[in-house]
């Protein structure tokens, strides 16, 4: 007696496996994060993220050219200002780091899609994502006054040449406020990629080294989502869609593939997954110790995001993944 159904028939050879593959990863799926800092000729490796650097604008341009040549269609820019204050001036000033980098990249590589991270934590002296009550040491951000800062930041980034605005602060109504600000300033065609489901995650630890954005007190649990919640993510994306979001993001990705899947099932909008710093650092550390095959683990993880429903993947492995795809 032999089984009638033999799924192994379609796994027999590499060409057969490629023919019936359900999900495919391409370089067009990838977005590469970059960190802009003041100065020139600066490339400072992030201690907890081997292979990731804080870069001056001239070095950002070099990276942008390399990214484009690898077939990666987009970068997302984060800025680390020289000075910080309670008004997050570096976020919305015309000479802010993201603004300078966006302008320089668009001049050098006009066909590369530049996404501007639109948040305030890198720019505030306290490290939180907006205004706080005077004397407040809990980190409870004042929602509505912060919306005005986010509007100013988004318009400034669009003026500097950013193709996409990506608000990440998880303020209630931030998509609506930014959409109104962009439209009033004549940027009706500039899309918004909303960090719609951003969780209060321990996986962000290394990013805070890269962006110098750790809170000076308290934490971000009053505005970022509880990791235990999945249904709440659907409520968040529905609100952002109603407010005018063009694309949606789930962050982090690795421990939240169920959320990526739920979000994709709930909307026809493009869905991005952010393969965050802690996920990258864990893989890098294990690879450097010889404990895993880095290429296979990275590619398996990225295809897992695609399988869960992600259309786009923000990842610090983007350049390596592009080379592996080409090889």
Describe this structure as you would to a colleague.
The protein contains twelve helices and ten strands. With 327 residues, the protein is an alpha/beta fold. Strands 1, 2, 3, 4, 5, 6, 7, 8, 9 and 10 form a ten-stranded mixed sheet that branches. β8 (247-251), α9 and β9 (271-275) form a beta-alpha-beta unit. The model has no long low-confidence stretch (mean pLDDT 95).
Brief rundown of the structure:
The chain is of the alpha/beta class and 327 residues long.
Q: Could you give the order of the helices and strands?
A: HEEEHEHHEHEHEHHEHEHHEH
> Structural class of the helix and strand makeup?
alpha/beta
Distance between the termini: 44 Å
Relative helix content: 25-40%
Q: Measured on Cα atoms, how large is the radius of gyration? A: 20 Å
Strand content: 5-15%
**Poorly predicted ranges:** none
């Amino acid at each position: 007696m032999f089984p009638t159904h033999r799924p192994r028939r379609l796994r027999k050879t590499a060409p057969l496996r490629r023919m019936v593959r359900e999900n495919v990863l391409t370089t067009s799926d990838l977005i590469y994060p970059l960190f802009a800092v003041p100065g020139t000729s600066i490339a400072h490796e992030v201690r907890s993220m081997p292979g990731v650097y804080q870069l001056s604008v001239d070095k950002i341009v070099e990276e942008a050219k390399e990214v484009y040549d690898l077939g990666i269609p987009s970068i997302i820019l984060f800025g680390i200002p020289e000075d910080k204050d309670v008004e997050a001036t570096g976020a919305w000033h015309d000479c802010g780091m993201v603004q300078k980098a966006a302008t320089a990249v668009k001049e050098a590589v006009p066909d590369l899609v530049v996404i501007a991270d639109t948040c305030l934590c890198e720019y505030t002296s306290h490290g939180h994502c907006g205004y706080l009550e005077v004397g407040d040491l809990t980190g409870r951000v004042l929602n509505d006054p912060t919306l005005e800062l986010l509007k100013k930041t988004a318009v400034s980034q669009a003026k500097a040449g950013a193709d996409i605005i990506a608000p990440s602060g998880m303020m209630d109504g931030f998509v609506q406020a930014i959409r109104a600000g962009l439209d009033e300033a004549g940027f009706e065609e500039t899309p918004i990629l909303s960090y719609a489901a951003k969780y209060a995650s321990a996986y962000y630890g290394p990013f805070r080294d890269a962006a110098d954005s750790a809170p000076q007190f308290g934490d971000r649990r009053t505005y970022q989502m509880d990791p235990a919640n999945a249904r709440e993510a659907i409520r968040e994306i529905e609100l952002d869609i109603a407010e005018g979001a063009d694309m949606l993001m789930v962050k982090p990705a690795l421990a939240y593939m169920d959320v990526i899947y739920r979000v994709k099932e709930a909307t026809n909008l493009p869905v991005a997954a952010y393969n965050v710093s802690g996920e990258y650092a864990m893989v890098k550390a294990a690879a450097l110790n010889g404990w895993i095959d880095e290429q296979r683990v990275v590619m398996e993880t990225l295809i897992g995001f695609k399988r869960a429903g992600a259309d786009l993947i923000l990842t610090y492995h983007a350049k390596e993944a592009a080379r592996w795809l080409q090889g």
